[in-house]
Amino acid sequence: MAKRNGKDILTRFLWEVWNQGDIDAADRYLAPKYTIHHDPGDPWHQQELDLAGFKDRVRRSRAPFPDQYFELQELFAEGDAVIATWLWSGTHRGDLPGFPASGKRITMSGATVYYFEEDRICGHWQVTDRLGVLQQLRPSPSA
Are 101 and 93 in contact (CB under 8 A)? Predict the structure, then answer.
């Protein structure tokens, strides 16, 4: 895979699938098996998903934040991997366990290594600020 090609594929994948919510677009970008190597706090941490399982993950992940948006900051390519740093934002419109929909705008940052098999994304290794998200979801102290 050409390094530039991986960056382009990843950019389109994040835009169409995660930002626009076109879950079926995943068919164009993913390998038959997608492995989540490292993503602590993610319910799918260390799991291998088929395409249907990945689509279910996107659907469930987007439900509480239907307007979520990943803003890419930097992309770096090395071998069969593309590393993305990103800023994420979304409005909390759906319930999460312990956190009813609040209407709050939530933000988070992270870095993800996406792995490729030829021109298909086959997994990731990710670190994110989930603690910051939980802090933002907590009710504001009453005056």
Answer: yes
